[in-house]
Amino acid sequence: DVMARFQAEMVKGLGRDTNPTATVKMLPSFVRSLPDGSEKGEFLAVDLGGSQFRAHQVKVFDDGRQSSQLESKSYPTPKEVTQGNGAELFDYIADCLSDFMETRNLKNKKLPLGFTFSFPCRQTKLEEGVLLAWTKHFRVRGVQDTDVVSSLRRALQKHQAIYPIPTGTGTNACYMEEMRHISLVEGDEGRMCINTEWGAFGDDGALDDLRTEFDRELDLGSLNPGKQLFEKMISSLYLGELVRLILLKMTKEGLLFNGKVSTALLTKGKIEMKHVSAMEKYKEGLSNTKEILTGLNLFPSEEDCVAVQHVCTIVSFRSANLCAAALAAILTRLRENKKLLRMRTTVGIDGGLYKTHPKFAKRLHKAVRRLVPTCDVRFLLSAGGSGRGARRRLDAALAPFLLPPGTLREVRDKMRAELEYGLKREAQGKATVKMLPTYVCGTPDGTEKGKFLALDLGGTNFRVLLVKIKSGRRRSVQMYNKIFAIPLEIMQGTGEELFDHIVQCIAEFLEYMGIKGARLPLGFTFSFPCRQASIDKGTLVGWTKGFKATDCEGEDVVDMLREAIRRRNEFDLDIVAVVNDTVGTMMTCGYEDPNCEIGLIAGTGSNVCYMEDMKNIEIVEGNEGKMCINTEWGAFGDNGCIDYIRTKYDREVDEGSLNPGKQRYEKMTSGMYLGEIVRQILIDLTKQGLLFRGHISESLRKRGIFETKFLSQIESDRLALLQVRRILQQLGLDSTCDDSIIVKEVCGVVSTRAARLCGAGLAAVVEKKRENRGVERLQITVGVDGTLYKLHPHFSTVLRETVKELAPQCDVTFMLSEDGSGKGAALITAVAKRLHNVGQK
Ligand code: BG6
Ligand code: GLC
Description:
Blueprint: H1 2-14, E1 27-28, E2 41-48, E3 53-60, E4 68-75, H2 79-82, H3 86-103, E5 113-117, E6 121-122, E7 130-131, H4 148-156, E8 174-178, E9 191-195, H5 213-220, H6 229-234, H7 236-252, H8 263-266, H9 273-280, H10 285-295, H11 302-337, E10 343-349, H12 352-356, H13 360-371, E11 375-381, H14 389-398, H15 405-422, E12 436-437, E13 450-457, E14 462-470, E15 476-484, H16 488-491, H17 495-513, E16 521-526, E17 530-534, E18 537-540, H18 557-568, E19 574-579, H19 581-590, E20 596-602, E21 606-613, E22 626-630, H20 648-655, H21 666-669, H22 671-687, H23 698-701, H24 708-715, H25 721-730, H26 737-773, E23 778-785, H27 787-791, H28 795-806, E24 810-816, H29 820-837
Parallel strand pairs: 2-5, 10-11, 13-16, 16-19, 20-23, 23-24
Antiparallel strand pairs: 1-9, 2-3, 3-4, 6-7, 8-9, 12-22, 13-14, 14-15, 17-18, 20-21, 21-22
Helix pairs in contact: 1-11, 3-4, 5-7, 7-9, 7-11, 9-10, 9-11, 10-11, 11-13, 15-26, 17-18, 19-29, 20-22, 22-26, 24-25, 25-26, 26-28
The structure holds 6-O-phosphono-beta-D-glucopyranose and alpha-D-glucopyranose.
The site of 6-O-phosphono-beta-D-glucopyranose has 18 residues, from α19 and α29.
């Protein structure tokens, strides 16, 4: 109900005609975008409005890691300052700043200054703010209705100023609103940050039915009666006072302390937020309560202490819930603005209550998630604050995974450059993104037919398939397949053993299908980089993923398969085509949708193929038509070009892999490695004492425990925390509730980065296709397969959103390949066979 009321308030505040009478002012901030990581330089900032006045020196580096240094000093804000006159206030600020600059040796520097002024201001531009009213414990004469920036400027003799962000003892929120909804500011394009000033919610009576006698009493005794009524139910400045008023009444009614009131209990402000926090602590709470009450000259019994704790809980719980309700309203608005059914977003949050109260943050998170199940919200403690150590260290560990849009665009552009380079003649043997010609020159046209065998090696499952294709009016594809295991010792044994094993599986399959005698044409999906000289020749460039059989690299895998068949001497097969899984996937989807000219795998490995114009492929003769190129983009970055976004965890995963230094992009984007990254982070957090009670269990040391399916389950929104704990337990990890929250967050950060990086790569591919075709807008279908794409609850959504964002001129349809790449391999085989029969190459 509160959420709905707040939603209505927001609409009112945004409307030109309704704004003058709206209590929630929805002030435009003239901040039009969020930082994108390309910011750099040295700045000063002052921060007025919280419990202390602070001066900061901030250095921001554009080294791609969004690193920054912050040096701060706090100054008290005594009553003479907060309740004196304007000139004194600004002089005081100037004095403090000058002291700060002296201590930091900045006296002779002229640095730009940002002014965080945590009070409601009407802005018409970035460097101006007219104070609408003082809130919280401030009431300085002669400042209301004046521009605080020019006052400060006067006091400081010309420093440039930025804008007020709210933080601190009060409560407030800002968010990015669509310009078209902000009728108070000209222009419809883009977005602008709106400072809601939600603390004033209820000032028109909208919450009167929810306010208690204690709220009314508190308000009457405050500096600004009738104002900031929502804030007075939530923020740290008032919580202690609310508790005091309740305790006082209970005591007077004889419900506490034997009915004996003390002078301290009668004194305004004697119970503060820090006391409430201390009383609500998990373990020491009860003894803290006793100590605090005794300090107020009360004589509490054990029962009194428990009751007082209960009062504290109720007051702070209400605070968290109300705050959550308004936040939920904003989140819903954001989601609707973006026309999304589900939205992932981060809320930057700061303030003493959130940071120091033992339970507030958790209650807030929980309530928000309950109110808006359609938003996946991450709460990020503002790093400038002096947050609870644990949260800060967790954020520090995860920060390098949060790639700003600017960095993603760089990744897209670098990928694009590598795609171009790989097609050049001079790049042969040198390019990291190899751009391998596949000799597949068209997508299916429906005339394919016949009976084929197919092998599908390199994904989660090894399959042998029989595929029957009918063309014409009875056009259809029938498939029979069997999955076979490939034991680890075979994947990493000798090449002969591997291919003998494959042939053994084929034999079993033929037997099982009762077609041992038939000499069927075979298409071989082999999901590793192969340099091809024709459709049925493929030299393995190097193993990737979990394979490392000896004596295969540099050899023709079709020959190896033929030899193994010969060695067995039991049946004969006509191996017609060797096909990468991306190509098979593109073909499978292309059979349904002729516009499918890209194949994407987001599974154990990560790779893309697409139809390229022959004239751009320098190493293949001929300029007519198109040929499918297997990009092998997994190797993107092997020359170090994206090392700056790799984290220490990525490096650890790489070092522990079968192919160190290779497939760096794949190792950040595909299922086989995501779990490993998660595991490395968890190990690190455990070492820091932030998880699993600081104990690294045997299970956590085991490589590969977090398979894609587990990550997907852990991240599923439908799963309650208890179920997450159960999954972790299955994996041998004994977790507390807090642990499971952190594990889920870690998984989320890692998989989101994977999806966004993959999206950046795909954006480069579709953009290239668009330019090839020379069109303003490109409509194209991408055939997709892979367990990460299929099973993970968010990967596909984030991937799609990223592509949309980074390739805005392309309308990309994603088509899930339901039938695997075997069908595509069979279609390719059919065409190759037909062309072969008519003597064409
Ligand atoms: C399968 C395809 O559906 O997906 C394989 O048939 C492909 O060819 C695989 O390699 C990729 O996904 P994963 O997750 O099994 O590696
Ligand atoms: C690896 C392989 C590539 C394959 C991909 C998806 O990147 O090198 O050939 O397409 O995994 O399975």
